[in-house]
Amino acid sequence: MSLLERLNQDMKQAMKDKNKQKLSVIRMVKASLQNESIKLGRDINEEEELTVLAREMKQRKDSLHEFENAGREDLAEGIRAEIAIITDYMPKQLTDDEVNDLVLAAIQEVGATSKAQMGKVMGAVLPHIKGKADASLVSRLVQQHLSK
């Protein structure tokens, strides 16, 4: 079942259940997917769907961070619920250890020895973690390993 089919099915169920928040989030995600499709001028593939989902997740995590810093727990709670809904559509997330193993393998693969080669390592790792891990975690791990 494609992501769009799953979203349509879940949207119908959210309407039946009168779950306004889930319905709203699903509609936003569907709109983002459709906008991406229009921008590209064709149907989007699975990898592009992951990119859109990751972008939606990042926007909400950024909002959550801002709301928490501003002490707006009421707004932060709503964003947490949205993140939980979007998480259901994301692929299984990699553990920190799995990401660390990928980073170490990429460092060996490109033969990186200094922080100056961080871009090469990131370029090798990011395609493998797309939608499965946070790029900021990867960046932090690459910096850690290259600064040793």
UniProtKB/TrEMBL annotation:
Annotated signal sequence range: none
Name under which the protein is recorded: GatB/YqeY domain-containing protein
Top-rank taxon, per record: Bacteria
Species this protein is from: Fictibacillus macauensis ZFHKF-1
Record InterPro entries: Asn/Gln_tRNA_amidoTrase-B-like (IPR003789), GatB_Yqey_C_2 (IPR023168), YqeY/Aim41 (IPR019004), YqeY/Aim41_N (IPR042184)
GO molecular function terms noted in the UniProt entry: carbon-nitrogen ligase activity, with glutamine as amido-N-donor
Gene3D superfamilies in alphabetical order: 1.10.10.410, Uncharacterised protein YqeY/AIM41 PF09424, N-terminal domain
